[in-house]
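Repro case for the chain-ordering regression, as requested:
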Amino acid sequence: MKRFVWLVPVLYILFVLLPIYWLLNMSFKNTNEILGSFTLWPRVFTLENYRKIFTDPTWYGGYLNSLAYVLMNTVLSVTVALPAAYAFSRYRFLGDKHLFFWLLTNRMAPPAVFALPFFQLYSAIHLFDTRVAVALAHCLFNIPLAVWILEGFMSGVPKELDETAFVDGYPFWRFFIRIFIPTIAAGVGVAAFFCFMFSWVELLLAKTLTAVDAKPIAATMTRTASTSGYELGLLAAAGALTIIPGAFVIYFVRNYIAKGFALGRV
Amino acid sequence: MKTPNQKAWWLVVPVVLLVAFNALIPLMTVINYSVQETFGENVFFFEGVKWFQAVLHSERFHNSLQRQLLFTGIILAIEVPLGVAIALAMPRRGPWVSVCLVLVAMPLLIPWNVVGAMWNLLALPDIGLLGRTLNAVGIDYNYTRQPFAAWATLIAMDVWHWTSLVVLLAYAGLSAIPDAYYQAAKIDGASSGAVFRYIQLPKMKRVLTIAVLLRFMDSFMIYTEPIVLTGGGPGNATTLLSIDLVKVALGQFDLGPAAAMSLIYFLIVLLLSWIFYTVMTKDEAE
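-- result from build under test --
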């Protein structure tokens, strides 16, 4: 019994890989083969789907839009979250607990509730259909996420570090930027990774706030899926490409991934 | 101990401003709509709690709430035990740890609509691997027509997407148990059942609480995956709470009912968040 225990994770991993394999399989087929036959691997291996994505501006533009607002959002979220997380981990101040809880409620709020008011708010300030609008809107859940994760990491740093630095005469900001942030560099990386990820995977708000110019790749995909319907190979190739950013950096955060998903609380 | 310092507020101000801009203004808009009636052209009349009564008594809302609770109940019942079992079976040390962690975490990092599209391609009855196989072995399966098949596919998709979260959290809890505990249990001749019951489970209690709460809350706001996979159909069979809300708000532009529904939805989530927060801070105080 004990000798076969390794089968459990192996079977689960096979289950995890199955849909990914099928997606890749379809992305290398042409439409005729997808619709006309049922094959476990591409008989006629084609890169046509990928070529189309990299040459058609409506396709690769979607990737550029997504990357642009995701990066803006990540930088903004982590930058403002750093001092706030420090305040929460080191000091007691009026309303700190309520504020910390209020931040959490925004991470937990269903985006569907915000879809309509966001549409009106960002139209009113003339940011509708811009990358900035999506970057700002995703702050709703990414700033709380970053604050919670960073607070978790900062609480693990002994207070003696701060006290020694202040006794040595370091001004606050110099201590914070030169000494404290490098100390929790791993935490900053993890927070940035999760901001990137959650902004990258979100679609409802991104789609609501854009029309043509700033359309994210995810929305481009849903349109293709619903209207032309039969360009499944193209859809599969576009989907496969969206997996790359996650697959690329996952190795670096593997030991912190549980901590990140649990909002810094493991 | 934390030092009292009111100046710390200055460090929090940027966060408060940015989140408040995104959270409070929309919330005020929603509250505004929830108590008013409009006949277009931006003319509004005060209506009191009419919309709240309408939503709370509407069969449609009851149905989507029931579907939502059913969905959340089923996926919790599957994902939590399954996740714990997989975490227990994963290697604790050695070169395979990284490989397992990376592969297990894969589904969590895929955009939600791609998850939906992926399962769509997998489950298509004529050309998808899963749909074709099921039909080949004699099971009549078509998730776009049969409500049961749609539900089964939706649940399989969520299990595929999110069980890894439970695995990772449970695994993190297990890795934190010192070897000395296991050695002591070995000396006492404890069975593996007893080790699980008296060492592993108590040590995993905290992470499992987090896992259950996170899965509860996140499954409660699921939107993108089902909308891509089934679009809420066939009929209304898989119209969960968020899908219904978006249909009312952005599809029909019924501002009053949509706003009242949003607020009720939000209150449920607020209650859940409060439980989450209490659990987290209670544990940290200990």
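Ordering looks correct now. The first helix of chain B runs from residue 9 to 34.
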